[in-house]
Amino acid sequence: MASLPAGSVDYFLNKRHLPSSQVERVPDIDELEDEEQDFGVAPSSLRSANFMPPGHDYGVFESSVASFPAVQSPLFSPVYQELERISASKLGERSDKAEALRKKLLRNSNVLVVQGGYSGKKFIYDRLKSLGVNVTIMDGPDSFWKTEAEEGRLHGFIEIDFSETSTVLQRAIEIVAIVNTKFDAVTTYYEDAVPLATRLAHALGFELNPVEACDIARNKRKTREALKASGLPSPAFYPIHSERDLDPAIRTVGFPAVLKPAYGAASLGVYKVEDADEAKRMYGEIMATLTPELDPIWTQGTEIILEEFYDGDEFDVDILLFEGKSVYAKLADNWKCWEPWFQETAANMPSLFPEPAAQELIQLAVDSTLAVGFRYGAFHVEVKWTSRGPRLIEINARMGGVSVRSSNLEAWGVDLVDQHCMAMLK
Predict the structure, then answer these.
(1) What is the pTM of this model?
(2) Cβ neighbours of residue 89 closer than 8 Å, sequence gap 6 or more
(3) Are 130 and 154 in contact (CB under 8 A)?
(4) Sheet holding 304-308: strands in order across?
(5) Which of 1, 62, 322, 369 is the most buried (most CB within 10 A)?
(6) What is the per-residue DSSP string for 312-381?
């Protein structure tokens, strides 16, 4: 943290996520007070203004894009002006020439990124700048990204106070409507910002992925319900809202089973249980930790689900969607998790898993992502190969973190940063 500019706050790395520690989390008050002593951040702006909870009530915003005529614009790239003369088939080709043409479309486009995430994501915005993309980040008043913009490493910065979460969407729209930059896309590379970025994109007329799809992916119970409704494999599960639900949940699911928060990240609150006594004991221990005072992720809900434990090996699938079709999907092998907390240890790409099982895993990941309703962009999907075949764990509606971008680039020559941005500009 000592490298941060004076007056900046940053996300902290999740200490529980060992050894893949680069999972950002909102720092607690004590940690931020330490930062205030080191960097002079005003105490009143330490937390709520800078760190938006990953899920909350955005309020109702009754308006249409017609109310904001200054927001949308023709894209500035000369290539865009000549789009009608470019064959769609040429743009869709899998060739170096077509890729070069697609990257030309990025030049001078104006992209609004909602929340930049922790400072370790700087490589994303450096890459986009190298491609000629004008990146503006919307974030809190003491954000690290504000300094990046002031020093010329970002095209722009839009300051917004996240304190009043019920009005943040409306205020974001109003701010965008009056800034000088006319944006060509709205997106994010930070998972907690996906709900707000998607709603803002829709309000401004950039309708790519449905808001409902993003909300389903953020709730593990809703994800399983969507899979079941689509005829895809789904585990036996039962929602637990109070201790009264434990006995029917145990009768429905059986053992071994997994207790996990419906909302969550980085395996927080996830625990494997072997019998009823352990399930009831761990439920109490987990619930004691699901408070916004410990982590603001729990502002969106403290619902727990009990679901059947999947045996077998775990894998990740990195997917790129365009117009509701998979244009890229590659498998990575996860090394054995640290149980009973399901913490990741390591991974390798390309996968060494044999065909055709590897393709079955990829197909389930793609089918599940489409079943939820997604159509555009990068997704990081977690799956398992069980004694009954492929099964989904969860869908992350953003590019994977830590080494995911570099792994795909080294193994397959595909830069997920570039491709996600292209999809958002469609």
Answers:
(1) 0.84
(2) none
(3) no
(4) 237-240, 304-308, 257-261, 271-273
(5) 369
(6) SEEEEEEEEEETTEEEEEEEEEEPPPBTTTTB---EESS--PPTTHHHHHHHHHHHHHHHHT--SEEEEE
